Fold this protein.
Amino acid sequence: MQDELKKFLDDAFRPYGNFPSRKDVEQELLANLIEKYQDQKAQGKTDEEAYQATVDSFGDVSEIMEQVRPQVHEEPIDHRPIGKVLKDTLRRAKTSHSKFSMSELKQSDLSETHLEDADFSFSSLAESNFDGAHLSGAKFGAADLRRASFKGAVLKNAVFTGSDTTSVSFDKADLTNVQFKASALNGVSFKDAVLDGTVFSHSDLKGVSLDNLTLNGTHFNSSSLKNTSFKNTTLHDVSFHHSDVKHAIFDGTIMDKVTYALLKGAKASLENVKIV
């Protein structure tokens, strides 16, 4: 299956030619895809089912390339043991512009750290702990974040592009103006999170609970909202451009007149909502 996944990556990046960091990018992504495939197999899926689920989680290549191009002229990857890299980096720079791209950080404890504007693109961060961390402006391009925890973290203006955020916890996190682009959000928890101005673009929110929240200026653009729940949530100036809301759940939702009109025009089920 490794050969099939490698061919998938080769085909995905073929339109972009041999850019300088292509080999490193594909090697890192291949390792992540193989791990995802093995996880799918461990869940009892057939080879074909596991392969399809793996490539479906990959995201949009054009979004990923937005993260690649700024790195083309940057320094090469640090090949020291990742534990030493992380320890030295945190000691040397407590804040701003830390670069962890293409790093193996699985199951790392980064709770309560100050990593504003850090770049975690193409990194393996599965099951890592970012609870209470300050990550405003951070970049998570094509990062493996499965089962990571961001409870109570400050993520203002952070960008998740083509990331696998399956089963991530954003409980009580500040996600003001965060952008989720082409990201897999299956099983994500947003309990008591702040989602003011948050943008979900071309992302999968099937079955995600957004219950009991207050959403101000939140945008759902071309995203899957099948069985996404907004029970008892308050919606102010929320948009759903090109998102299928027919099977979203709005029981007990409170919304302004404009949001109501947009949802009604999109054939959403609005029998038990309150308009303010």
Q: What stands out?
A: The first strand starts at residue 139 and ends at 141. Residues 2-71 form one domain. Strands lie at 139-141, 159-161, 179-181, 199-201, 214-216, 219-221, 234-236, 254-255, 274-275.
